Structure formats: C-alpha cells, structure tokens
Amino acid sequence: MKNRPGVRIGAIGAGGFGLFALQHFLQLPGVALAGLACTHREAALAMGRRFGIEKVEPLEEMLARSDIDLVYISTPPFLHYEQALAALRAGKHVLCEKPLATSAAQAEALKAEARRRGLLLVANLVQRYNPLFDQIRRLIKAKPLGEFLHGYFENYASDQGLPPGHWFWDRSKSGGIFIEHGVHFFDLFEGWLGPGEVEAAQRTLRPGSGVEEQVQCVVRYAGGACVNFYHGFTQPGCLDRQEFRLLFERGDVLLEEWIPVRVRIRGAVDEAQTRQLMEIFSGARLDVTRVFPPSERKASGRHKPLEFYQMIDLRWGEGTNKMTRYGELLRALFEDQLAWIADRSHPRRITEEHSARSVAVACRAAEIATPKLEKTSQ
User: Fold this and answer.
1) What is the rounded CA–CA span in Å between residue 275 and residue 144?
2) pTM (2 decimals)?
3) Which residue range is the domain that position 207 belongs to?
C-alpha cells in the first residue's frame, strides 16, 4: 500500500492460532516482529529466533519501548482485557485474538479507551474478509432466491486437542463457548443481516465432569428471521466439521467449513434469477436438474404467487483449501487495519464496534443459557 509506514509488532503470547496468524501478518511489506512477552512456549521462542527476537521480555518492559507500534495479543481470553488496556494506555495499537474481552462491560471500556486515544483496537474476526461474505450479503440484498427466512450454523467441533485441564473448559478463563468461540459467527451473521437479539439459549454439561461442552441459541434479526447457532466440542479430530444453511423463499444455500470456502445452492428460479446467481457466484458450476413445462411453472409459497422455469444445483469454491483461505483473510484483515493507521479516513471492514458488539451478543447468550441456580453456585 502506498505511503504506509512500517509497523513493528510486540506479541503477547504466541500459541496455536497466534503463531499461525503472526506468520501471515509478518508477510506484509514493512511489518516486523520486534518483541515477545508473556510466553515461554518452545514453538514461540523458535519463531522469535527466526525473526531475530532472542529473549522474552516482561510485559511492562515491552510496552515501555518506543519502537513497538502495535501489540498483538494471543493469550487466553481472561487476560485480554487487562493486557489490551495496558497496551492502549502505553500508546500502542492493539490487535487481539477473539474475543476482545470476556464481558460486554470490559469490551465497551476498551472501545472507549481506544477511541479516546485515537488508537487501533480490533479483534481478529476475519469472516468479513472472506469473498463468500460479500457474495452472501449480495445474495440476501438482491433476492434472486426471494426473502431470507431462516438460518443455522452447526459447529461439530473436535475436543481431541483440548485435554481436561485446558483453560478452554474453565469458564473463568475462556468465558465459555459462546464467548470464546461464538463471536466469529455472531459477527458474521450481523454482517449479513444487521443487529440481532438473542431470544433463547441453552447449554449442556458433560456428564461426570460438569464442563460446558455444547451450547445453542436463537438470534432474531430485522424482519423477524431467526438463526440457530450450535457449538459442540465433542468430536474426534477426523469428524470435526461445520456447516451453515440459509433458507430463502425459492431455495436454500449450504456453506461448509467454519471459514466457509464452498457453497451449494439448490433452488427453483426463472431465467433472470439464474443469471443473477451466476453473476454473484462467477465461475460456479451450474446443473439444471429439472425444467418445468409451461403448465407447471406457476406455484405459490407463503401465500404468494411464484413462477419457476427450472430447478438448479449451483456449486462454487470446490477445491478451495480452508487453511490457504484463512491465511489470505488474516493478511487482508491486517492490511485493512494498517491502512487505517496510515489514514484515519480509511473505512475498515472490522472495527472496535464490531469487536465489542460480538462480545455483547455472546455474553447475552451465555447469560440466558446459564440457569440462575448455576449462577449462584459459581
């Protein structure tokens, strides 16, 4: 990007996705890793050596350095608020792994602090940078399949890499599944449908351990459409999978992977609607599974007259690798945020408002899902 200044990152923690993300951020021109704090994981130390960082510093010392421009936080969620607040007060821009905080009040406090100081504050919510985000938003707005009626996101996640003592299972550290994991998907659907309100939520505890292993909730969006969200951390690694389904008046849309990379549309449409779909999903494979004779083209649904020409089965994104796409989105998110640092008039796809809003929705779902008796005993 023209005239973008170099940015030196100080990383707080670097495990799991944090390591993966940093390696993509550092591929951007002018971006360098300048410091590491709060981690002694061998993989993180090896990465530090790769980029010329020989030691791990105390957090206070790293934040006091004048050559650190931006702090990247990838510690467990219960540490995000205090570490982000300290970084902002030290005059550093902040990019934080999701969630931004474990309470709505903390997220709002961070948002206010960043705005008061004119600093970047954003959670690593990458879904809005996905090409499919724009395509689905265009599909909803252009309505070639009619009105959006209902949706669900089903996350059949693996717990194979999450042993019983992992911080993920401790709600005081993770915030629980809605907060630690659900924020990605609450933000994604609000990007498609606008703000929503949680109407119902439940959770399931693992027998014999009492840990939260499954959660689900219903969010209602403008116009009355509801979306169901389910997250279950119960599967062996080979069965880890995710799917979205969006129901419209003239058909349905299936998206696969937690960062969706493939789409399948099955619907009953006319010629103009078929053309619209092919324009939105350029390069898609289209199969016509049935052509209606003139005597069968008129139909009705929701007490509305409809007219069809053909049944279609459209597929887009087959062969796309999820991890390759994830890397692309990480680089896009970081480039977007760096553009704002260089020019505050730059409109970002993800802001501190989205970061805080996703926490607020997640916290509301967690609150409804936790019975009062459980709350008093915690």
Assistant:
1) 9
2) 0.94
3) 128-323
